[in-house]
Amino acid sequence: MESTILLSQGDIKEVLTMKDVVEICDKTFVGFGEGTTINPTKVGLDLGEKAAYPPYEGFMNAMPAYVGWCDSAGIKWAGGLLGERKKAGLPYITSMILLMNPKMGNFTAAMDGALITNWRTGSQAAISLKYTITHKKNIKIAIYGAGMQGRTSTMAISQIFDIDELRVYDLYKSAGEKFKEDMKEYVKGEIVVVENPEDAAKDVDAIITVTQSKNKFLKNEWIKPGMVVVPMGSYQECDDEFILSADKIMVDHVGQCLHRGVLKELAEAGKITEETLYATIGEVAAGKKAAGIKSDERILCVPIGTGAMDIAIATVVRDRAIEKGLGDNFAFVV
Amino acid sequence: MESTILLSQGDIKEVLTMKDVVEICDKTFVGFGEGTTINPTKVGLDLGEKAAYPPYEGFMNAMPAYVGWCDSAGIKWAGGLLGERKKAGLPYITSMILLMNPKMGNFTAAMDGALITNWRTGSQAAISLKYTITHKKNIKIAIYGAGMQGRTSTMAISQIFDIDELRVYDLYKSAGEKFKEDMKEYVKGEIVVVENPEDAAKDVDAIITVTQSKNKFLKNEWIKPGMVVVPMGSYQECDDEFILSADKIMVDHVGQCLHRGVLKELAEAGKITEETLYATIGEVAAGKKAAGIKSDERILCVPIGTGAMDIAIATVVRDRAIEKGLGDNFAFVV
Q: Does B255 contact chain A (CB < 8 Å)?
């Protein structure tokens, strides 16, 4: 009983598709709404991202969760580092996931968490659109930030919608061009690389921002009635005016969303409170609050990221990997 | 670079002694005082210990930390479970530790955390006495609770002091007798198993409580001038009168100690605040606040437990294990 399965990124890729990830995240959002997904507010360890000490350029977040529908508990420890890690050509995200049997207390799996983090982040964007754009299947979207999470968002959204047009903006036009090349198979219509940020938002149904920008670059006047905005960066990517005038604000996790990301600054100023929020994504997914956007509404939907998604995905990965005989095993408690 | 060493309890035992653990914890306490030990407040996941759901009898705490003196970051995920785990004859504590290189972000080790948890908990009691009982080397102590942590406390205290007498009380006298048998080698003088809780506290220099009691069984009138009380249970083991009349209260971690353990109730009632506290153990260890107890003083010292201790110990274990070629290796990021 006390042996732990060890799984690499390669093992995970063998048993997981983006379609799986979207479905797993959707179920876990429903669990949030129904009260069977238990997800304490994450706790951070600043390694020098903002703090003066330690002298590194990163942070780590500890994200424990229990997910009722798969009866699994676990923790993801994940963060981002620049500095020497970037110089060495390693990806920004570093992460591990541990799973335990919540009844017996033994650790059932240890696996890479970076791949799952990237895929579930994209899935959270897709599910944000699933419960807001309920009136059509063919959509036009804007992506700000042609990096990893722009890609996984596109891949995940394509599992639920037909993307008739994707307008992408990146600080570096070459990144946009590379994105266009890589994402072709997920987009039915055209991918348009724009040079002016304002142009990306024109005539789209949804705007996804996945940048590391510390500027409020997305302007209120670009966002027209009927549009959904999904900001996924660590900082505030849209201006105060939009946040304060959006018809509905939805979040994945109230505690976390008021303390980090796009709403942090206005929440700290007392201008956004729990009462300002229309619903959690989970409440809408569970049918407790109405889904859908009206043609005269503008919706801000913030899936800041919850460990519960990672734990649910990791649990499915573990069970499939055991069935397939993948990975390795180690007995920690002997 | 991206390979992770895996270590079992057996591997850890091969490279670690209680003497090491006491020294490592001491250095890490000094780091707390000097500001080089970074230890965010732990975040809990209730699996049904207090919450109505999920339906299990346990909890897990996520404890990330960075320790400057060994330049290491990591997380311990640790908790306790009764119920089916207890029925299966498994120990209360279940735990894993992950270590990372704080500059490069790669995960360097995954190891069992239960053994380290038990040993460091005992060491925290020993260091609490080291900085309060500074005027003698031969001491008499009382232990309430003849379980694992009563044992590791005794073992650790014997690294710093000669124990001239140890008075032990347990709800079950047979547990006390077994403790006496097991702990002989660590106690120079006699181990006295008492049947009446009050008798344990008679004529001792220090009282260590390591019980799962939810009663405030340790009475103010039992605690005489010159005595140090170190409560390590999850609940309040001593009465309000003692806490409110102790001459000095020391803690290992202000944030945690005001929200759990012995001070929780009075802190929530506003009767104990950060201002009530004399010092952190770290401040005393670093020489920023005076050590020692006066003959007319009674000190309450609360080492509730910090992940930094575990991360520091695990780092030393990792480095020694690599040198000795112990454990196994797995590449998670491939």
A: no
